[in-house]
Specification:
Elements (H helix, E strand, L loop, with lengths): L10 H23 L4 E4 L5 H8 L4 E5 L2 H7 L8 E3 L12 E7 L7 H13 L1 E10 L9 H14 L1 H12 L1
Parallel strand pairs: 1-2, 1-4, 2-3, 4-5
Helix pairs in contact: 1-2, 5-6
Length: about 170
């Protein structure tokens, strides 16, 4: 069974209220820097790409989860996403102005996360930007936020949760 088979359907409705400010900040940055080509690595449900599309940006996403990609292909502003391994991207002669990933590296083992970042660098155009958004739990993070984040990651289960805990320790 695929890791996100059941959660993909309600993933956005649970997380979007908490990450909306971050999604909106990405749109603000895209407007500020006028990116022409955007790649969302480990795009999940394509939520960020859909929001960018609503603001006139074109982009594409890659993800390994068929369940998440199924959600990405639905709705008024369908995200252009394909199934592809982020550790071995198939972009040989294509470069992007903005290569981004959000809330994905914490769920990968260290070697995979490192390879994903290396691939992101490889497919970024000269003068382009890389944007990585993920958790940083510090002494400034409220107890309630920490509990919520740990709960969400625990629900994701198994390897995802183990990798999250390892990520937070580093």
């Amino acid at each position: 069974m695929e890791e996100y088979e059941y959660s993909a359907k309600f993933y956005d409705s649970i997380l979007f209220p908490f990450i909306r400010p971050i999604r909106n900040k990405v749109v603000t940055l895209a407007k500020q820097y006028q990116y022409k080509s955007i790649l969302d690595v480990c795009c999940g449900t394509g939520d960020q790409l859909k929001l960018l599309k609503q603001h006139g940006f074109e982009g594409e996403g890659i993800d390994l989860s068929d369940a998440m990609l199924s959600v990405a292909g639905k709705g008024e502003h369908k995200a252009d996403c394909i199934r592809q391994d982020a550790t071995q991207m198939h972009y040989e002669n294509v470069k992007f102005d903005l290569v981004m990933t959000a809330f994905s590296l914490h769920e990968k083992n260290h070697a995979s996360a490192r390879k994903i970042v290396e691939e992101m660098v490889r497919v970024t155009s000269e003068g382009g930007d890389i944007l990585i958004v993920d958790y940083e739990l510090s002494e400034k993070t409220s107890i309630l936020s920490k509990i919520l984040i740990y709960f969400i990651e625990w629900v994701a289960g198994g390897e995802h949760y183990r990798n999250f805990r390892s990520y937070i320790k580093k």
